[in-house]
Amino acid sequence: MREAIAYLGLGSNEGDRAAHLGRAVERLGAVPGIGAVRASSWHENAYVGDGPPLAPFLNGAVELRTVLSPAALLGVAKALEAEAGRRLPAPHHRPRPLDIDLLLHGDTIVDTRDLVVPHPRWHEREFVRRPLRELGLDLDALPRWQRPAVLHTPAEFAARCSTWLGGGCTVGLVPTMGALHDGHASLMRRARAECDRTAVTIFVNPLQFGPGEDFAAYPRTFDADLRLCAAQQVDVVFAPEPAAMYDPDFCSHVAVGAAATTMEGALRPGHFGGVATVVARLLALARPTHAYFGEKDAQQLAVVRRMVQDLGFPTAIVPCPIVREPDGLARSSRNVYLGAEDRRACTILYRALASARHAFARGERDRDALLARARAVLATEPRAALDYLELRRDGDLAALPPGPVDGGRLLVAARFAGGVRPVRLLDNLSLDAPPDLPAAAEAP
Ligand code: PAF
User: Fold this and answer.
1) Residue 91's pLDDT is what?
2) Segments of the chain scoring below 50 in pLDDT
3) 327 inside domain
4) Which residues on adjacent β-strands are paired with residue 202?
5) What local confidence, expressed as pLDDT, does residue 443 receive?
6) How far, CA to CA in Å, does 117 sit from each of 102, 106, 111?
7) Domain boundary among 90, 107, 141
8) Which of 11, 48, 97, 103 could lock 57 by a disulfide, CB 3.0 to 4.6 Å apart?
9) Contact present, 426 and 334 (Cβ < 8 Å)
10) Identified catalytic residue from 105, 119, 123, 184
11) Are residues 308 and 350 in the same domain?
């Protein structure tokens, strides 16, 4: 390894804090492969982490020259922490005799499960910035971890995900077409909670729009989308141009059978082929351990699950609950196009589904009676032009025969034509789902 200048952040809030820090600096200077150790002075800082307050820290920073790799330097830091009496693995939210963070290591970038360099938050912490300034550094010139990193080419995206996987990380993929809202944010939060790294794709996929559909008019709000991804601490946003995703000779398509031919598939021929093709391409590029899809597009979820199972992608498909407005409207990127009257009228979709669910909860089991119940509610709203209302088996959405049912999912699609442009809205509800909104939003 060529020699690099590295910076460590040191802290202590247990025992003789100055002695712990001083000893660490001394010991660092004696490690083979480390030289020219220079330390800042120590500063007292209030605890800034989560949970109940801990005793104040004494913090500082150390500059050193080293031929050790970032991973080897981290190993040295961990050994010094253990020597100072810190229990490893360190219990969360406990006083620490010695805490050492690797802040910077020349211009090296590391992104593995155990180590991220530059340290993702060094520039946000005054207790790190102050000693670095004292060491004479121009903080604005130092490398920072950019989160989210924005990648545009499939090769860059594949390489980044592959580095994560190679470093032992789990990777959560959230495929989107942008125009992000709270529903997407909930997918990102789930991915963040369950995976070491989160990648969001923003790509308005031309393959899933039919002739005369709203490809050109689909809302594109990239700057706001990036802000939402940053707030959700997404690691990477992959935002390719169509030509980068599909080169001029691209001619392979994924066709999913029965799951893709009814309901949305019947009304939008080719739509699910386009969805399956782009999702397959994204899964092949990223090879994520998990991929997150909203239950709002229940048939899309069923199609993706079928494809992933049939083609053997090693990715866990994670369904995430619908996020609704307080009045029941399911969050969707296309809601922005609803006129004021349609915005009021379209809550009929959720109320119709909730009404059938109430009937099921009160003991109604007949498929057609449940559908008739929802249909009667829909009929009270003349602004809604119904495309379909179905009761299907939960999960794969297979057709249910007439007669008694012991559960299932209601799916509805309707058009509203009075706004900025005509909008088709989809919604669905499991008959077993507990009421999740105030009674006023659910009342038929
Ligand atoms: O649900 C969507 O936004 C899209 O259909 C998806 C899954 C990102 C594929 O383009």
Assistant:
1) 64
2) none
3) no
4) 176
5) 62
6) 7, 10, 7
7) 141
8) 11
9) no
10) 184
11) no
User: Interior CA angle at 19 toward 15 and 24, to 5°?
Assistant: 110
DSSP line for 102-134: EEEETT--EESSS-EES-TTGGG-HHHHHHHHH
Whether residue 175 has its Cβ less than 6 Å from ligand 1:
yes
Claim to verify: residue 153 and residue 277 sit in the same structural domain? yes
Residue at which a domain ends, from 320, 354, 382: 320
Whether ligand 1 lies within 6 angstroms of the CB of 66 is answered as no
Ligand 1 midpoint to CA 283 (Å): 13
In short, whether 273's Cβ falls inside 6 Å of ligand 1 is no
Residues 158 and 98 in one domain: no
Give distance in angstroms: CA of 356 to centre of ligand 1.
28
H-helix segments, 312-432: 340-345, 348-361, 367-378
Residue 297 Cβ inside 6 Å of ligand 1? The answer reads: yes
Q: Are residues 180 and 214 in the same domain?
A: yes
- Which residue is listed with tokens 């100072």? 84
CATH number at residue 123: 3.30.70.560
Which tens digit of pLDDT belongs to each residue from 121-171? 899 999 999 999 999 999 999 988 888 999 999 999 999 999 999 989 999
CA 200–ligand 1 middle distance (angstroms):
11
Is 301 in contact with 307 (CB distance < 8 Å)?
A: no
Give CA–CA dist 4/242, Å, rounded: 40
Q: Name which residue sits closest to atom 1 of ligand 1, judged by CA.
A: 176
Contacts of 429 (CB under 8 A, 6+ apart): 350, 353, 354, 356, 357, 409, 410
Task: Output the pTM of the full model.
Answer: 0.84
